[in-house]
Task: inverse folding
């Protein structure tokens, strides 16, 4: 209800609620609370108000929980309004609260239509004045015209920490590798390896890139092996140096900050033998060949610096037999072996 209407109701009359039993439905307290919620200005703040316009609301519950009625009486006891209410049928607490609201609505409407004098037509409040238009933004300070510089060719390109697959094509990779061949004893020409590895990317195949890798270096040194006549026993010493060159064709796939690679490989070893036995020296050169599969992972620390780890399995195609002058065999390349290697390098 609008504030102007409430003020007129207060001038027209005031209302008080006669007390009643708390178990009534609705109770006097419920009706009073509903009236204060919906039309608080109607309710007299003083129950003993002797105003001529004071009306009293009396609730009359029916015995046995039947229909409840209520009346509005003036100061002389004249009934100004009488209504009956339906009896609660469901949830009593909910129904009593609803009946109290019903009484309040009926009373408010009575005051609006009967007790309230004729009012002028209510006009809606005037709309608020329009806000002033926003001030224009301040002009930037004037400065002498300058010639725009041409944009940098890489200004809009995202900074990448890894080479793209397209950048792999026709790129070079150079690394230093260290590894170990298993079996790796002197009698089977194994040992620690140190190699220089050069990679060249030259084509794509689906989602992978093809690389040609060539490596060369020292691949094992064996010394103090038994050397001599099998009938008289060892009487000298021998040392061998194995140089190795490898060519591998690998395909690489990007995975996180690195690439997985795998492919076939071919290996050629050259073994130089130097021996002394019973005052006689012996120098020989032998060649060994093998083929196998190389696989590994290349991890990029930055765009140019990387580390890699790989594992190569080879099967011997040519196995050199190293013998004394008398025919005593002392060294033999294995028929199959594994080489584990790690390395660091640069991407160009």
Result:
């Amino acid at each position: 209800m609008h504030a102007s209407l409430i003020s007129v109701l207060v001038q027209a009359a005031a209302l008080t609620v006669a007390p009643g039993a708390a178990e009534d439905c609705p109770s006097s307290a419920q009706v009073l609370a509903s009236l204060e919620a919906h039309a608080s200005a109607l309710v007299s703040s003083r129950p003993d108000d002797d105003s001529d316009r004071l009306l009293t609301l009396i609730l009359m519950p029916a015995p046995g929980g039947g229909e409840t009625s209520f009346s509005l009486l003036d100061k002389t006891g004249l009934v100004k309004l009488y209504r009956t209410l339906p009896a609660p049928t469901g949830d009593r607490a909910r129904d009593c609260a609803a009946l109290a609201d019903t009484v309040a609505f009926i009373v408010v409407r009575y005051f609006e239509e009967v007790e309230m004098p004729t009012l002028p037509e209510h006009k809606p409040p005037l709309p608020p004045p329009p806000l002033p238009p926003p001030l224009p933004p301040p002009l930037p300070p004037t400065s002498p015209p300058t010639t725009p510089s041409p944009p940098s060719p890489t200004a809009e390109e995202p900074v990448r920490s890894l080479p793209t697959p397209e950048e792999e094509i026709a790129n070079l990779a150079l690394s230093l590798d260290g590894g170990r061949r298993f079996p790796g004893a002197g009698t089977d020409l194994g040992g620690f390896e140190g190699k220089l590895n050069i990679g060249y990317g030259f084509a794509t195949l689906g989602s992978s890139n093809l690389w040609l890798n060539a490596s060369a270096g020292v691949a094992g040194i064996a010394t103090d092996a038994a050397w001599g006549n099998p009938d008289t026993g060892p009487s000298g010493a021998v040392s061998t140096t194995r140089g190795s060159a490898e060519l591998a064709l690998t395909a690489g796939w990007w995975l996180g900050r690195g690439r997985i690679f795998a492919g076939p490989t071919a290996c050629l070893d050259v073994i130089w033998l130097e021996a002394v036995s019973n005052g006689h020296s012996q120098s020989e050169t032998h060649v060994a060949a093998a083929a196998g599969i190389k696989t590994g992972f290349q991890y990029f620390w930055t765009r140019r610096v990387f580390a890699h780890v790989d594992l190569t399995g080879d099967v011997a195609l040519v196995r050199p037999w190293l013998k004394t002058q008398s025919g005593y065999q002392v060294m033999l390349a294995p028929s199959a072996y594994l080489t584990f290697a790690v390395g660091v390098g640069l991407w160009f």
